[in-house]
TrEMBL record:
Name this protein carries in UniProt: Transposase, MuDR, MULE transposase domain protein
Annotated Polar residues bias: 524-533
Residues annotated as domain CCHC-type: 417-432
GO molecular function: nucleic acid binding; zinc ion binding
Organism in which the protein naturally occurs: Artemisia annua
Amino acid sequence: MERKGYGLQMIRGSPTESFEMLPYYCHNLEKNPGTITRIKTNEAGVFEMLFVAIGVSIRTFVQHLRPLLIVDGAHLKGVYKGTNLLAVGMDGNNQIVLIAYGICRGETGDCWSWWFSCLKECIGDSQDLVIISDKHPSIVLAVRNEYPLAFHGICCRHLMMNLSLKKDTTKALYWRICKEYTPDEFDRKMQILLNIQPEAYHKLVEAVVHRWSRAYCPLTRYYYCTSNSVESVNACTVKSRKLPITMLTEQYRKMVQDWYFKRRLVAAKMKYEITDWAAHKVEKRKIKSATWNVYGVMQHRFHVFDGRYNREANLTNGTCDCRKWQLFGIPCGHVIAVSRFLSQTDSLQFVQDWFKKPKYQATYAEAVNFVGEFHKWEYPTHIKLIIPPRMDNPQPGRPKNTNRIGSQGEEPRVRHCSRCGEAGHQRGQCKQPFVPDEMLNKRKQYPKKKKSVNEQHHPPPTFDSYPTQTHHHNFPTYDTYQAHVFEQNTYPTQPYDQRFYTTDPYNQGQTSHEQHAHQRFYTTDPYNQGQTSHEQHAHQYPSHGYEQYDSQAYPSQHLNDLSTQQSNNSWFNLFG
């Protein structure tokens, strides 16, 4: 791991040196026209917060995007911990545009307030501005202080996580409630939720309905109910958030540069007068409204029956009773049905300018300039160096809970050393001399489980009455004549009465012949209850290997062979 860290440091640079290079990087980044960078330090020059907004992104948001900001924070993964703050907008093709980004020590109210104050210098504050985020108290406080005119909406997905919705049908009902456009339908579905899960209903009411619903929102949320857009950027920068601070800032600049370049090429090849995403929405609603009935009321007022509801569309005011047209910006199915009733070729004239081709091309008309290599940067002498923040290194693992209240009658558990048996320390810290295991407190011995009849072990049969020739001794033994001869590095084919003056370390210098001549071989067999090897194998013949039999009880066995009979006579003469 040390080699890997050293290699990464050679490629990426030191995290500490990255803080020293940060002010010089921001100075060279401001060569992009309109770019604003802010670095906040304490009195000692220690880093606290960073704000960066590229000039191209600022002009894009102010001139060509809907007044919608989606903000969130993500944790840094490198040596120096902190929070990565982001603010994004949405273009006419439902694509993410990075407006501003920054880094702070933590997601606190002071950090968000300072960061929003810098963002306010770039885009200003207005009554049409909509800010969507999660329900973090620091974000709520900062928006209230820095953007008093803007509308602050809550992310519906984060809100759902606090409701403990158990069934999938209840979750589907919740999303229909959030995305409902009309107050009547909203109230009807909320009543259904009250009957199914009252706890979730009361939590939604406490969360202030107009802050998370479309139906009661005083402004338009422009179709967006969640903060998934900024969460998508966080997902794209998981690995980048491990980089040093200067490289992380440069990664965001490269991301914006790449997005603008690719989307500029797409805008030049657009085949519709509106964006592809808007054209898909219009085509889908055109198919859905093909069978709807339209009735004229006045020159620009029409009554439309969609098979379930009766809606009135006013082409002069640009409104419809379903409220999708005015809240979305793209004509609803009722307006498309009216355009078909009027024999109009298309409905593109009812689409707002945010989704039209000229606006989309103007969004990415400008380019993001390259900063250059660090050895080509400008290094002004008036810039002060930044000291990296001091990081506390917590121990790995989950911290111990020392505040737990014990149960009634519960006593603290005393740990004992597994080496010496004493209390108060563990084996790794034991300083006592070694104690044998039999002197320690042994573990409790549990009685062994009695085996069943099928599992019981049956010892091998004894050979008081020797079996026939067909019975083979399957247990390994080294007490036979051939085995002893083989152990003494001699050939088994040599005559048995030959003396081999090979010393056996277990028989105190006796020769192999003297060992075989004695009546007893002091080799104990665990299956024969202390009998000597000679008593066990007194009638074993070297010519027949491990086959055993009683020549007295069965004189006719194996005596038909003359050579075998001679060998047996020699064997009996030798052992008396």
